[in-house]
Amino acid sequence: MPLLWDAEAIDALTETVITRLLVRGDTARAVAMDLALGLSAVQPTLPALALALPFTLAASAIEEMLGAGAPARAAALDAWRIAALIGADALMLKTEGDDSLAALAAQWKAGDEVFDAGS
Question: What digits encode the pLDDT tens for the residues 26-49?
């Protein structure tokens, strides 16, 4: 996995989110879980909030490129919602003293109302 703070990597992650939401029809929750687990394996100390960036960029791009079509609207709303939930989880982790991507992935993997790995 490339470094998340590299502009090329951010673009690639954003493209991955868009492709998985629009082409494969995955939920943003599933994409977030996969990205969190994959990225945390190679860059565990990245801030958890960094994961929200590709979802925010993807939602904005989907709205800008595809406009008002129902599938695009649904995908963009799903991406916006997940970006906000990532932010909330990152804030909660910060209050607990470890707001790393590894901590976020571990929380989700252990079970979370939204990001339950078992569902």
Answer: 999 999 999 999 999 999 999 999
Q: Give DSSP secondary structure letters for the chain.
A: ---TTSHHHHHHHHHHHHIIIIIS---HHHHHHHHHHHHHHH-TTSBGGGGHHHHHHHHHHHHHHHTT-HHHHHHHHHHHHHHHHHHHHHHHHHHHT--BHHHHHHHHHH--SSS-TT-
In a domain, residue 116? The reply is no
Q: Tokens 């470094």, residue?
A: 3
Q: Rounded to two decimals, what is the model's pTM? A: 0.86
Q: Which tokens hold the place of 19?
A: 């492709």
Domain count, the chain: 1
